[in-house]
Structures are given as structure tokens and as C-alpha cells.
Amino acid sequence: NAGVTQTPKFQVLKTGQSMTLQCAQDMNHNSMYWYRQDPGMGLRLIYYSASEGTTDKGEVPNGYNVSRLNKREFSLRLESAAPSQTSVYFCASGQDRAFHNEQFFGPGTRLTVL
Amino acid sequence: DAKTTQPTSMDCAEGRAANLPCNHSTISGNEYVYWYRQIHSQGPQYIIHGLKNNETNEMASLIITEDRKSSTLILPHATLRDTAVYYCIVRVAYGSSNTGKLIFGQGTTLQVKP
What is the DSSP code string of B1-68? Predict the structure, then answer.
């Protein structure tokens, strides 16, 4: 099992360009998440999807869109990249239950916006 | 939402127990305490969680005070590979799907020294 995979690993964009970060999990989890982590900071939730076909905003959704393509895949799109979106992006998945929420994280995508 | 307070950094000698404290004085009765760690540049990794009883697994022990206002993560025999940022998180459930949102603070940077 690969767990949670993310592509690409690194990306450099110019201001105003668009791109989509891809995430896939092979653990049959219902829930998937996108976080960003700025230098010296903890992770902040951008969007999450509790199940296929549903998405909801997290703490910092502005400037992003998401698509839960199917149970395995959850993509994050930057329509018009800004330097403030320079960050490391982590995707996670979990089988959320009322009494336990263990999330499994991917290796991250390091994005620089010039 | 319950918030957590952790020391910014701690040192520990290799082979000794590492005790990482966390304050969560506003925790609600149905909120769980989670611990994750993030080894340099990698995605966070789940360690342990608990409600009110002490918990132990192959990685660590979690001691929660009787009033649940604080907890301590114990790594019984720290190794150099345990050097990481450790996050204490109170699980917040929201939305009709009961999806748990993990709010990451800045965590404690644990440096294990030879």
C-alpha cells in the first residue's frame, strides 16, 4: 500500500498562474483533507471532504478550490496563484469515527509562487 | 474550541524518558486529546490519543490529569530519531458529518541529544 500520495513534490509558479495539486489514497478512507504549512508554523486546514461528493471549508479556504473526484482522489486548485500561497501543502486521509480521528499524511508538495 | 498550550522547545538525553506537557484547560467533556509528531519536512504522524484514561501504545504513553485540563506525552526511551515537533491537539467535531477537525498549534520542538 502506498498510503497517501501527492503530486508534484515541488512546483514553482509565477503570480497569476494556476495549477492543481493531486492527492490519492489507497486506504479506502472516507475523509480527506488539505492543509498548508508556512515556515515555523503548524498546519492549517484549507478544505476537507467528509465523504465522496462533499467538501467543506476549513480555516484558510480563500484562494483555493477543491474537487473530490472519487473516494480515492482529492485535488486542490489554485486559480490565480499569489506569493502568499507559497507554502508546503499536505494532503491527509482518515476513516473518521465519532471517537477517533487518526489522519494519515502524504509527503507534501513544496510550492513557491514568485 | 478548546486550545492547547505547549512549551516551544525541550531537550532530552538519548535513552532517557521525554515528558512533553500540554495544557488544555477549556477542553469539553467529549473532546479527545491527540498527539502527532512531525519529523523534519515530513507529513505529521499520529502517535496516540485519549479521553480521560491513561493510554499506552508501542510508541508512547499519554497521561491525562483527572480534571482533564492538562496531559503529558511520554516517550519512555528517547532516541535521536525522536527529534521532531510534537503537536498536542484537542479534536474538534463539527458539521453534521461529525468530521473531526485537527487544529495544529506550533507544537513543541523536541531535540534528543546524544
Answer: ----B--SEEEEETTS-EEEEEE-TT--TTPPEEEEEE-TTSPPEEEEEESSS-EE-SS-EEEE-TTS
Name the residue in chain A with its Cα closest to that of B85. Answer: A42
Q: Do B91 and A101 touch (CB under 8 A)?
A: yes
What amino acid occupies position B10? M
Inter-chain CB proximity A108 and B42 less than 8 Å: yes
| pLDDT tens for chain A, residues 1 to 114 | 789 999 999 999 999 999 999 999 999 998 999 999 998 888 999 999 988 889 999 889 999 999 998 999 999 999 999 999 999 999 999 887 666 778 999 999 999 999
Q: Classify the C-alpha dihedral B37-B38-B42-B43 as positive or negative.
A: positive
Minimum distance, in Å, between the CA of residue B72 and any CA atom of chain A: 19
CB contact under 8 A, B99 and A108: no
pLDDT digits (tens, 9 = 90+) for B27-76: 887 788 999 999 988 999 999 999 888 999 999 999 999 999 999 999 99
